[in-house]
Amino acid sequence: MKVKSIIIAILLFPIWVHAECLNSGIRVYPTSNELAPEGWIILEGFALSESVIYDIGDKYPVYMVGENERIELEVVRIEVGMYRLTQAILKPVRTLEIGKTYFLKIDNMDKIHRYAKRYNAPIWTIVDHAQTFMSDKITMLQQTGSSYIRYGCGPEVFGLFQLNHPTSNNYFIMVELFDNENDTVNTYTFCINGLRDSLLQIGHDMCSGAFKFQAGCKYKIRLKYMNDNGSRVSQWTNWFDMKNPLDE
Fold first, then answer.
1. How far is CA 199 from CA 31, 54, 78, 115, 192, in A?
2. pTM reported for the whole predicted model
3. What is the pLDDT of residue 165?
4. b (16+ CB within 10 A) / e for 73-105
5. Average pLDDT for residues 80-85, to the nearest whole number?
6. Are residues 153 and 95 both part of a single domain?
7. On the chain, which terminus has fewer CB atoms closer than 10 Å, C or N?
8. What are the backbone dihedrals phi and psi of residue 31, each rounded to the nearest 5 degrees, phi first?
9. 2 pLDDT exceeds 50?
10. Do residues 150 and 228 share a domain?
11. 225 vs 237: CA distance, rounded Å
């Protein structure tokens, strides 16, 4: 009986994994509990929740809610990832008051479009981010490796880069991936404090991701930094040849 149960579990495992892939969710950045008075906020929808991002501000009004006030967020731009991932970069229509606390509110959002794990509806305290911005060209450190892990409904594929950046702030990184074979460029923006282990992961997990690769193609990337409200931007780095994780 025990052996039979194990066999059934093994047979059903790909179905469970596939169900996870069909799941939906909203990620919110920055993940810190502080925000600048005019700070940008990123809403990222994956899989079925991409539809929320396409209609954010229209079908899905979004606000910062504080004590006795509700401040609308407007869309700076929409960025569409290459693999079932889309994000909206938002900013408040007016300056938030330093010292006050606000939480994010999205109207008309169905329960299926819940906040993803580790990205619960955030609460921010507004602080004066008088951080020193690195105005000179930022250099990229070497590609530290690649990751290819096959799961039940698809692989997780990443190129891994270690960056020289401040480790504790709400700055943003805009990345361009150039496909030499197809002569195409795809762009996506990341929040620094959302990076794990200070690694910039270029690619996608089994369910979604900003970038996607084709075996046999050659790629290069470049990036630039932006401060927490996009008012200061560094120069682009030089193009950096990237090892294709599918060819290693």
1. 16, 28, 24, 23, 9
2. 0.85
3. 63
4. beebeebebbbbbbbbbbebeeebeeeebbebe
5. 95
6. no
7. N
8. -90, -5
9. no
10. yes
11. 9
User: In angstroms, rounded to a whole number, what is the distance separating the alpha carbons of residues 195 and 200?
Assistant: 6
> Which of 101, 126, 151 is the C-terminal boundary of a domain?
126
| Cα 57 to Cα 79: distance, rounded to the nearest angstrom | 15
**Separation of alpha carbons 87 and 32, rounded Å:** 18
3-state secondary structure (DSSP) of residue 52: helix
Rg over alpha carbons for the chain, rounded to the nearest Å, is 20
Structural domain contains residue 1: no
Residue with more model confidence, 141 or 222: 222
Cα 42 to Cα 97: distance, rounded to the nearest angstrom: 20
212, 184 Cβ separation under 8 angstroms? no
Stretch 14-28: mean pLDDT: 58
Q: Which amino acid belongs to residue 216?
A: G
104: amino acid identity, one letter? L
* Chain segment 143-193, per-residue pLDDT in tens: 889 999 988 778 899 999 887 665 556 789 999 999 999 999 999 999 887
- Backbone φ and ψ for 168, nearest 5 degrees, come out as -130, 75
Given a contact cutoff of 8 angstroms between Cβ atoms, the answer to whether 203 and 213 are in contact is yes
CA 191 to chain centre: 7
Distance separating alpha carbons of residues 234 and 161, to the nearest angstrom: 18
Total domain count for the chain? 2
